[in-house]
Write a structure and sequence with these properties.
This protein is of the alpha+beta class. The protein contains six helices and four strands; from the N terminus they run ααααββααββ. It is elongated and about 65 Å long.
Length: 170
């Protein structure tokens, strides 16, 4: 169907503007952390907020106030999980995955690749994207908690204290 009625179009415009405004206000009040892409739960919140916004815009059975309430619930839950991860001992480990070293000192860890379900080609792609052409020039490739691959060139490894499983203090 191409067109139902002008009243439906007007509803989408008005409710859409109000829902968008409400979402922007929620995000401003909750802070930058709400839309960060640091962990899997952050991604879930971001996708879910978009889904709720789309539902409020297009589904006449869902009111603006219901949509805004649903978005607020997600934002509050995300803030609670982030607070637990930051402040409760063991909370970070409970809420997030640990980063995994997939390549160390130019050598690919095949067992880490299998456990993480990452293809060797993806590691090579990350190395190339970082401007390196030789695996032996790479100190580490780390699968981060948000699913990205970080490449640490051998020339920038320093004491390695930023790598997972590094001894405390380097």
């Amino acid at each position: 169907m191409w067109f139902d009625s002008w009243s439906q179009v007007l509803r989408v415009v008005l409710v859409g503007a109000a829902a968008y405004g409400g979402l922007v206000l929620l995000l401003r009040v909750s802070g930058k952390r709400t839309l960060a892409k640091l962990n899997a739960y952050d991604l879930v919140v971001t996708v879910a907020l978009g889904s709720i916004l789309a539902t409020v815009l297009l589904n006449t059975a869902v009111s603006w106030s219901e949509g805004l309430t649903a978005m607020a619930v997600l934002v509050v839950l995300q803030l609670v999980v982030a607070a637990i991860a930051a402040w409760v001992p063991g909370g970070h480990a409970l809420a997030t995955a640990r980063p995994t070293v997939l390549l160390r000192d130019g050598q690919v860890d095949e067992s880490a690749l299998r456990r993480s379900r990452v293809a060797r080609q993806e590691v090579s792609q990350a190395v190339r994207s970082s401007g390196q052409g030789d695996l032996s020039a790479v100190a580490a490739v780390v699968l981060e908690t948000d699913g990205t691959l970080s490449v640490v060139p051998a020339s920038a490894i320093g004491d390695g204290s930023a790598l997972p499983d590094a001894p405390a203090g380097g």
